[in-house]
Specification:
It contains five helices and no strands. By secondary structure, it is mainly α. It has a single domain (about 5-125), classed as Up-down Bundle (Four Helix Bundle (Hemerythrin (Met), subunit A)), CATH 1.20.120.330. Helix 1 (about 5-25) runs antiparallel to helix 2, helix 1 packs antiparallel against helix 5 and helix 2 (about 30-50) packs parallel to helix 3 (about 60-70). The longest helix has 23 residues, at about 30-50.
């Protein structure tokens, strides 16, 4: 795998873990969940394009990036509507006037997980199910959330 591809994948994974963590934080930050889910998808799509040697413009438009990837991965066509919506949400929540709710955050993470599950194997990486996930936040009243000493 190209060095640049690896770097994009590492950044995508960081965004995915951040999105997961913010969804379960106390209090949850649904705007950050949506934003980092969008960033995860963008970086995974760019990683796939880079690995294939496909150039792309500087853009945050997930649907446009997907269209560039479709000649490589025609079965990804079904993602188009979801990615269009995630592009809008990921950008809009960064500014006053729009707030993501729990449903938006869950949908953004679902989409990011779906893209992650497709792109990783396409890059020859372990499937998403084989990679570690971010830990869940401790439930209220379960202690300080720190490690228990044995």
């Amino acid at each position: 795998m190209k060095t640049a591809t690896t770097e994009w994948v590492e950044k995508a994974e960081g965004d995915y873990r951040t999105a997961q963590r913010e969804e379960v934080a106390q209090p949850p930050n649904y705007d950050a969940t949506a934003f980092h889910a969008q960033q995860c998808v963008e970086k995974y799509l760019k990683a796939r394009l880079i690995e294939a040697g496909v150039s792309f413009p500087k853009t945050h438009d997930l649907a446009a990036l997907l269209v560039l990837a479709l000649p490589l991965e025609a079965t990804w066509q079904h993602l188009l509507l979801d990615l269009d919506g995630l592009s809008s949400l990921g950008i809009e929540v960064r500014y006053p006037g729009v707030k993501a709710d729990a449903k938006d955050a869950a949908e953004a993470l679902r989409i990011a997980g779906a893209v992650r599950s497709l792109v990783r194997p396409a890059l020859g990486l372990p499937s998403a199910e084989e990679t570690p996930q971010a830990p869940s936040a401790p439930s209220p009243g379960s202690g300080d959330g720190g490690p228990e000493l044995q």
